[in-house]
Amino acid sequence: MKMNRKNGQALILVCMVIVFLVILTAPLFNIAISGKNMLKRAKLEKEAFYLAEGAVEDTINQFITDVANFQVLANTSRYPASGTRNTTYAISPAFPGGANTVSFVNATENSMRTINEGGINIKVKNFIVESTCVHPANANTTVTLKRAVTLRKIATFQHAIFYNDVLELLPGKPMTFAGRVHCNNDIYIASDGSNLTIDSDYLLSAGNIYNRRKDSNATVAGAVNIKVAGTNTTQNMHTDPILDCNNTNWASESQTRWNGTVQSSVHGVTKLAVPVVGSLKPSDGYYMNNSGLKIIGTTITRGGVTLTQDGTTGHGKIPIGTITTTTLYNFREGRNITTTNIDLKKLAGWENITNRSYDNNLPSNGLIYATTNSSDTPVNTTAIRLVNGSEIYSNDAYGGVTSPSGGLTVVSNDPIYVQGNYNTLNKTSTAVICDSVNILSNSWNDSNSTALLSSGRRIAGNTTVNTAFIAGVNTTTSGNYNGGLENYPRLLEDWSGKTLNITGCFIELWNSTAATGAWNTTGVYSAPTRIWSYDQSFASGNALPPLTPSAIEAQKSTWWKQ
Can you tell me the distance from the alpha carbon of 101 to that of 88, in angstroms, rounded to the nearest whole number? Predict the structure, then answer.
């Protein structure tokens, strides 16, 4: 009996201990479950946060891309105009069903402002990017992030020269260049026996500046006279010793000599944003798709209507000879080039010099896209030629046809030849964007193109061209000079004693893919006196050619979680 009583007491004691332990561990168990749920919720929120953060970056990148490609106005109040845009994440181990976020951009001010940095006008506007992610595995977990950004739009043609790659300048004849020069790489600047004058207080390189050739270590003897900032005087770079980046006193003495005109990376010069130029492809390129007038081969289409050359007037008609094809011999390329010739005066309705009886069929948005064929593959035997362009009738409606508000941009995936004076009468804003640019003087005649330079039949005449260029160049290799900026517009005539005046801009962003003939003077051309300068009407960033490309930047600032 006593044993049973003791056993009973022990059993009771055990039960009491068990009850006590249950009472004690229940809260701990609840705490553990709660902690596990908190960790799970924190994990879900962290994942949703990262998804929303990625969507913010994706939306910013797409926003500036669409602005750069003229799909969205930089001055927009909302992007997209209505609704939201999705950022979709692919299926992954973390998200077996993938993931999706929604985003939009709202302006925080009514219009763009203009600020000036280092003489460059930049249009800016503040926006807030908002992205929301509902976790794909738990609809109760939602994260919204906001980020403030400033959109910066920098019009391309605010430098007289802008090179993204190495800039070389080595003229053999006297040359004067006036205007701002910026290079995102090294600059090699010299004069091959004649004076080179840089009439500018802005010669900047994000790399180094050398007074020598790039294709060899040889120095050249000509003077390089560069304007002293704030004065009307110049100082020579080619002195004894030469003052360039190889000089141990370059950092300080360059500033003493030119008062800040000449600066390189050691002075804090950095690369500038590169202009976004839409595709030049004829198949589905940006310019092809957005042109107001298309020329493919000899077929001209304006506003969806094919224009006809048949000698009669009326809507949809153009004078005979508006589009022709001829052949010239290009000594630099070493081959015959078949050119599609666009007579800009006839396109504007002039049948001849004095008789205007056709509609003005210049494009309503100021953009002509021209190609010799519809293939995206570069062709080295064809080109586009602009003739009778001394006056661009872009402000002139005739025959009831709506004309552009002003200016003309001609774009091609082919090389473009500009023949004769261009945009010299009633000057407007024009641009040429192409594989490479060639200038034929007022005296050019195709029938003389095969004649030797020494024959006296390829004698140039004084010529003036007023336009901005975006075109390709060749790359200098050891012992093979690419011709430098002085041959950015390629020449095929004897220009001895003649002057080539150019007012505009020279922008280099790519290498030529169709016109790849190596630079050579022997038998190809003799150099003119070059008087080239910046078109000051572009300086404000407003009076620009139609659809001028821009560098678009997004300066990101604070972000917060809603």
Answer: 7
Q: Are 447 and 453 contacting, i.e. CB atoms less than 8 angstroms apart?
A: no
Of 335, 314, 316, 339, the C-alpha closest to 326 is: 339
DSSP 40: H
Interatomic CA distance for residues 203 and 225, integer angstroms? 12
Contact assessment for residue 398 and residue 318, using Cβ atoms and an 8 Å cutoff = no
Query: Alpha-carbon distance 511 to 359, whole Å?
Result: 38
Q: Evaluate whether 430 touches 391 at the Cβ level (below 8 Å).
A: no
Alpha-carbon distances, residue 98 vs 59, 101, 138, 434, 477 (angstroms): 18, 11, 13, 43, 49
For residues 400 and 431, the answer to whether their CB atoms sit within 8 Å is no
Residue 281 and residue 288 in contact, taking contact as beta carbons nearer than 8 Å: yes
Alpha-helical runs (H) found in 177-263: 250-258
pLDDT digits (tens, 9 = 90+) for 181-223: 999 999 999 998 788 999 999 999 999 999 998 988 877 889 9
Give the pLDDT of residue 1. Answer: 46
Give exposure, 353-379, as e/b (b: 16+ Cβ within 10 Å): eeebebbbbbbbbbbbbbbbeeeeeeb
Bridge partners (DSSP) of residue 501 are 464, 531
Q: Phi/psi of residue 324, each to 5°?
A: -140, 170
Q: For 280-324, what is each residue's pLDDT tens digit?
A: 999 888 899 999 999 999 999 998 899 999 888 888 899 999 999
For tokens 């007491």, the residue is 9
Helix %, strand %, coil % of the chain (to 5) = 20, 35, 45
Q: Quickly state the pLDDT bin for 348 (edges 50, 70, 90).
A: very high
pTM for this prediction: 0.86
pLDDT band at residue 477 using 50, 70 and 90 as cut-offs: confident
Q: What is the predicted pLDDT for the residue at 34?
A: 59
Tokens of 14: 């055990």
| Encoded tokens for 134 | 């509902």
CA 24/CA 138 separation, integer angstroms: 33
Tokens encoding 479: 């012992």
Tokens of 229: 């900032």
Closest of 457, 463, 410, 460 to residue 437, by C-alpha: 410
CA 200 to centroid of chain Cα atoms? 23
For residue 27, the Cα-to-chain-centroid distance in whole angstroms is 67
DSSP state of 422: B
Residues 328, 449: Cα–Cα separation, whole Å: 6
Contact 144, 167 (CB under 8 A): no
Question: Tokens 């005046």 appear where?
Answer: 501
Q: HEC profile for 341-370?
A: EEEHHHHCCECCCCCECCCCCCCCCCEEEE
- Reference 280, options 412, 154, 446; nearest CA is 412
Residue 44 has pLDDT above 90, yes or no: no
